[in-house]
Structure formats: structure tokens, C-alpha cells
Amino acid sequence: MERVYIFDTTLRDGEQAPGFSMTTEEKLQMAHQLAKLGVDVIEAGFAAASKGDFEAINLIASEVKGPVICSLARALEKDIEIAAQALAPAERKRIHTFIATSEIHMKYKLRMSEEEVLERAKKAVEFARRFTDDVEFSCEDATRSQREFLYRVIETAIKAGATVINIPDTVGYAVPEEFGKLIEDILNNVPNVDKAIISVHCHDDLGLAVANSLTAVKHGARQVECTINGIGERAGNAALEEIVMAIKVRKDYFKDLYTGVNTKELYKTSRLLCRITGSFVPPNKAIVGDNAFAHESGIHQHGVLSHRLTYEIINPEDVGFPSTRIVLGKHSGRHALKAKLKEMGYDFTEEDLDRLFEKFKALADKKKEVYEEDLEALIYEEFVKV
Ligand code: KIV
Ligand code: ZN
Q: Which ipTM did the prediction report?
């Protein structure tokens, strides 16, 4: 069995998204829950970005045990030093330093040549190694970087002491097959690449972050950077819950791969983030959306009530979801109505059930969902009222 390391960046990339900033206390609460969830690395923030971020990382580093605690730092001594100070109390710490490697970023943002970027990457990793032997290096905008140059940067960073090399799809530009091939090519072409873990960090601008990350894993990446509910810059990052459950549910496809995540904590973690940030997940969100285990149509309800696996590939309890939800609405059938009435303590004859079903359908056509109170009212109208 080979582990796919889960690097959670909810508190860094996730928090960078508009509307998702958290106080130090909220970040600490979230970090405790992420530790309970069993992620391998918590990227707690970007220490040099603000005093608040520094304090949050420092507090998480002193109080949260289990995962490696990480801070982001630009490839600058000043940033790396601040990250190291913030992380000082951590039992296990990682400094994550990065620089852009694509032509467009080097030309317009960094105004640096390839040689200057190479030198900066080397110096940053060497400097970070003074504080910890766990140093991650990211080639920002890797998917739009010139291939041979990307290989040279990775080789340089490994030689300088990086233990994790992260390949970000910073602008969510990659498509799965191409991204998988990039990972495979890096593994086949960069000297000494086996000295580091290859990580991926995918953004969701084209809705492909999870697909790209999973394809990368299939091609040899062994760390995935992701966030709870997929929050993050612009359209977000790869959703942690989807990555983890895909690897678990499709063991047949991912063969010997596994993650250390306790999936029973997924729903709770997702809801905690919603409560803290005042956000919500769409009802149809995979794994943690309200409708992820809800069935309204008659055919599906009949199937699930006869055998859950007909229409559910995940047991809701495995992700800590309350339970399968049978929703009564205009698409529902007699089976679901009968099951709901039984749950409410009623045992109607088939003839009475037919009568009620007719009334139920008429009502369901006028409402989005038929609740227990609606059924009580129908029963009263039909069988009690004189
Ligand atoms: O998207 C990105 O490139 C990043 C890096 C800093 C890893 O967030
Ligand atoms: Zn990012």
C-alpha cells in the first residue's frame, strides 16, 4: 500500500478567497478539526502576509498536534525567516517556498530572467533548510511553464534540499490527460526526482481541479494539495472530500493507494467551515452537499429502499453524513410514501394507501417538497375529518 499525502490548504489558499477570511481563534478551531480529520499537512497560512496570519500560524504550531504544520513563504530570505519564526513551536514543521516559472509570470510579475529565477529558487530552498529538513518548493504556474526550464528548476530545488516538489496548476488551465502526462514526464526526466515527493496543487477555473489531481496521482504524484469544500482563489482549489473519497471508493482503480484521512469526519469538517465563514455548499455538492444522499424520484427511491447500493456508491455514515434522505416530492412513488408513513407510525391498507397517494401527488405538484406535517394534514382530511 502506498500513501497519498493530503496537504490541506484551507487555512492558506482557501482563506485567500474573498469572503473566507478567518480570525486567529477560528483558524485554530478549524486546525484542530483538520487534525481530527487526519490530514498529513496543515498549511496554516502565509506568515509574512500579515501580523494576524503570523499569530494564527504560531498558535496552531503550538497547539495542534499530529499533522505537519506549514507556512507559505515567497522565495525571499525575509519571508522564510518569518515563516520559520511562526512555525518554531511546532513538533513537525514545513516551510513551503515558491517562485513562478512561467514566461508570463517571469516577464510581467517578477521581471526576472530564467537564470535569476533558478538562482532564487536554489537560495530559498537552501535558506529554508537551515530551519527545518522538511522543505517544499513550488513552481508557481507550472502548467504554463516551458518544459525544459521547469525540469531545470525542479532539479535545482531538489539538489538544494527540497523534500517535496509541488506542481501547481495555478490558473486552473490544465486538462487531466495533459496534466497526468506532465507528472509522468517530470518523474521520467528530472535527475534525482526520487529524492522528493511530487505534489500537485490544482485550481478549479475550468472545473477540473479534482480530475486533474486524481489523474496526477494515477501518474505518480503522492501529495495532493486541497481544501475543505474546495474553497480557494477564484473558482477554488481541488475539494479535499472529493479527492479522498474517490481514492477510497475506487480502490479498484487506484489500486494500492490510500490516504490517512478519517472520512467519518468529512461532513463535520465541511459544516464547521461553513459555520465559521458564513458560507454554504451548494445542495448538489459531491460528498457533503445536502442532496448528496437524497432521493426524490420514484424509481430511485424504490431502488434505494430495496437495496441501498442501487443508487448510492457511498454509505452516508462513511463520511459522517446523517443518513440517506428520502425526499417526498412530485417525482416520488408509492414505495417512498409507504415507507415514510411507516416511519411516522402509520400502517395503511393498500386501498387506503392508494387513496392517500392520489392526494399526495396532487399536493406534490404544487410544492417543492412534501413534509411530514403535510402528510398529517392529508391523513386528517381524508380519514379523520367528517
Ligand atoms: O496556486 C498556486 O500556485 C499556489 C502556490 C503558492 C502553491 O497557491
Ligand atoms: Zn493556489
A: 0.99
> Residue 342 burial by CB count (10 A; 0-12/13-18/19+): exposed, middle or buried?
exposed
Residue with cell 496534466: 179
Residue 67: DSSP 8-state: S
Residue with CA closest to ligand 1 atom 5: 140
* Protein residue with least CA distance to atom 8, ligand 1: 13
Q: Which residue of 10, 101, 138, 223 sits with most ligand 1 atoms within 8 Å of its CB, as the best mutation to test the pocket?
A: 138
| Cβ neighbours for 306, distance < 8 A, ≥ 6 positions apart | none
Q: Rounded to the nearest whole angstrom, what is the distance from the C-alpha of residue 9 to the centroid of ligand 2? A: 9
96 Cα–ligand 2 center, Å = 12
Which tens digits make up the pLDDT trace of 303-338?
Answer: 999 999 999 999 999 999 988 889 999 999 999 999
Residue 386, pLDDT > 80, answer no
Q: What is the pLDDT of residues 240-292, one digit of tens each?
A: 999 999 999 999 999 999 999 999 999 999 999 999 999 999 999 999 999 99
Distance 385 CA to ligand 2 centre (A): 63
239 bridge partner residues? 227
